[in-house]
Amino acid sequence: MRIDLHTHSTASDGTDTPAELVRNAAAAGLDVVALTDHDTTRGYAEAIAALPEGLTLVTGAELSCRLDGVSMHMLAYLFDPEEAELLAERELVRDDRVPRARGMVARLNELGVPVTWEQVMRIAGDGSVGRPHVATALVELGVVPTVGDAFTQDWLADGGRAHVEKHETDPFEAIRLVKAAGGVTVFAHPGAGKRGRTVPESAIVEMAAAGLDGIEVDHMDHDEETRAGLRGLAADLGLLVTGSSDYHGSRKTVTLGEYRTDPEVYGEITRRATGAFPVPGTGGV
């Protein structure tokens, strides 16, 4: 089985619609794909309606978290999307995205970059506006060559000249909320130092004690040394190890299925989940 448990659509900051995403996943030879848009489940219905036969969809989300001033992301799988407490927290995070993005546009203008709010909103479309949309605007203006180059201290990285903070959930609270909604939690790209500061290993130990299910090890932002260290830590703590593309369509160079999760780990995730179940494809529309 070919399993990719971390992808994004136009419901947040990917460039494929949810329907295009599942069709592209099937074309890439995947058997299982997870839709994990940032802080939203808005892409579920379209993805399910278009789900090709032979492809299974895992519903999920990537939750924005912060611990001791460090931004981090928590992948949540197969939770009940209507559970009231987790839904309220996701809405709180999403509602803060617009003023945050406006603030980044204002700071860029102060730095002499002629980005406009209208440009950012055009790029975001119906998606939940975020830093990648502002970064894409910088690429359009020729300020940086790629979206990744916008995530530096010069521009949009945590603590960067144009960075603006937003509401983010405490990861221990995120674990509690997802568990209460019947879901499974995996710490996304914990060693992605090129994105900015990362949380210390001691924090992962504490999260494991609080119920964290796993960590994402095989990821484009982890070199071999980082992967080896994380794999050893996961073994010591009894955490599941996942691998995923973190696919964003044309916004990143990574392809669907470039990094994958072991079928036994996928099976354990589905066994632990009680809030929702994987959706088998029936041919789509």
Rg, alpha carbons: 18 Å
Tell me the number of helical segments per DSSP (H or I, 4 or more residues long): 10
Give the mean pLDDT.
95
Helix content: 25-40%
Distance between the termini: 24 Å
* Number of distinct beta strands: 8
Identify low-pLDDT runs.
none
Element-level helix/strand string: EHEHEEHHHHHEHEHEHE
Note the overall shape: globular
Strand content: 15-25%
Structural class: alpha/beta
Major sheet summary line: 8 strands, mixed
Can you give a write-up of this model?
With 285 residues, this protein is α/β, with parallel strands linked by helices. Helices cover 36% and strands 15% of the residues. It has helices at 18-27, 44-49, 84-95, 97-110, 117-124, 131-140, 171-180, 201-209, 224-237, 263-272, and strands spanning 3-7, 32-35, 56-67, 70-77, 184-187, 214-218, 240-243, 279-280. Strands 1, 2, 3, 4, 5, 6, 7 and 8 form an eight-stranded mixed β-sheet that branches. Strand 6, helix 9 (224-237) and strand 7 (240-243) form a beta-alpha-beta unit. Helix 5 crosses helix 6.
List descriptors.
285 residues; alpha/beta; eight-stranded mixed sheet; 10 helices; 36% helix; globular
Give the SSE layout.
Layout: E1 3-7, H1 18-27, E2 32-35, H2 44-49, E3 56-67, E4 70-77, H3 84-95, H4 97-110, H5 117-124, H6 131-140, H7 171-180, E5 184-187, H8 201-209, E6 214-218, H9 224-237, E7 240-243, H10 263-272, E8 279-280
Parallel strand pairs: 1-2, 2-3, 5-6, 6-7
Antiparallel strand pairs: 3-4, 3-8, 4-5
